[in-house]
Amino acid sequence: MLLRFTLATPVQSSFRVQQVAGMFDLPLTEKTSTQEFLAELPDPEEAWQIGAIVGPSGSGKSSIARQAFGRAVCQPGNWPADRAVIDGVAPGEPPRSIQEITQTLAAVGFSSPPAWLKPYRVLSTGQQFRCDLARALLAPEPLVVFDEFTSVVDRTVARVGSLAVNKAIRAGRIARQFVAVTCHYDVLEWLEPDWVLDLASGQLSRRRLRRPQLVLEVSPCGHRAWSRFRPHHYLAGQLSRFARCYLGTIDGVACAFAAVIAQRGAPGVRRITRAVVLPDFQGIGVARRMLAAVAERTLAEPGIRAVRLTTSHPAMIAGLRAGGAWQLRGVYRAGGARQSRDERGSAVVSSTGRACVTLEYAAASPSSI
User: Rounded to two decimals, what is the model's pTM?
Assistant: First the structure.
């Protein structure tokens, strides 16, 4: 698809306009400012999943995207000031089920249920970016063009968010064609687009870049590390003082936490009682690698025959079952809630009273992401 068009913008003369024109010897004989564009883009009907339009500020990225894709370009929406994100992320038609909404939020790396219940305005910039991305992907159009992609977030969130979108679309969890419009070249190798229009060179390239591998390192840690991860876990219970804790890092940066305790009434069985990935690293498979590494370490201990995990988090259940390393052991419907207590007698929030799934570890998983 070859685009050739001219944008004409009216210029309203004023005293200051005349001053600037005189200072820089700019002609004001015309009443309009014109700019011509020439670009080649793939047709939406072609067999591609992810594309990118990249270039410096002012190079015409947004103009070309609007000319080529029209209404598919996402427009910033207003979020309700006093409503939870889960209520505002899919405001249009057709209505979306809670399963589809939560799966999309998790697919873009926004997997923290406590944050789903907060208004958009109180979230971090990175969380707001992922909410905007989820809202765009929940729209009914088969093509989504996201302007200013990753422009307002730090580069760690930008890279991880790009990888999350890449994985979700390539795996078929989000059935959309996606075009990122951005001035940041560093996201391209993480987004792995099928084509890139670079307005700095004017060239359209049709190839996927090879992204770097992220290596998750898992090591034992003390209980104090839990305080950093606790606000992002969907349970608010205290961590058992008998729990064995593990910390996951990528490039030396803490990103995940897990804790293991003995399964009551089941000799030789250990249970992963807490598993949390920090928001900046959600959506790229860190949880699956972290849990596999912890399970492998635990099974290597003398006398341990099984490692299990009970969870009601829909994204974690789907991710672990899809990976094949965890086998389903039981599905439990919501029942009457009972208050349980830890070894010190303090009240603990448990899975009792919630629909949940128990999985057992069965196979190894690579540490690279």
Answer: 0.79
Q: Is residue 186 located within the same domain as residue 52? A: yes
Examine the domain organization and report whether 261 and 225 are in the same domain: yes
Cα–Cα distance measured from residue 359 to residue 332, given in angstroms and rounded to the nearest whole number: 12
The answer to whether the bond into 95 is cis (omega within 30° of 0) is no
Task: Work out the mean pLDDT of the chain and round it to a whole number.
Answer: 86
Q: Are residues 102 and 237 in the same domain?
A: no
Residue 211 in any domain: the answer is no
Q: Which three-class secondary structure string do you get for 68-116?
A: HHHHHECCCCCCCCCCCHHHHCCCCCCCCCHHHHHHHHHHCCCCCHHHH
Domain that includes residue 185, residue range = 43-205
**Helix (H/G/I), strand (E/B), else coil: 180:** strand
Tell me: do 243 and 312 sit in the same domain.
Answer: yes
Q: Give the DSSP letter of residue 140.
A: S
Task: Please indicate, yes or no, if residue 116 is contained in any of the structural domains.
Answer: yes
Q: What is the mean pLDDT of residues 107-121?
A: 91
Question: What are 225's strand-pairing partners?
Answer: none
Q: What is the DSSP letter of 138?
A: T
Residue the block writes with tokens 């399964």: 263
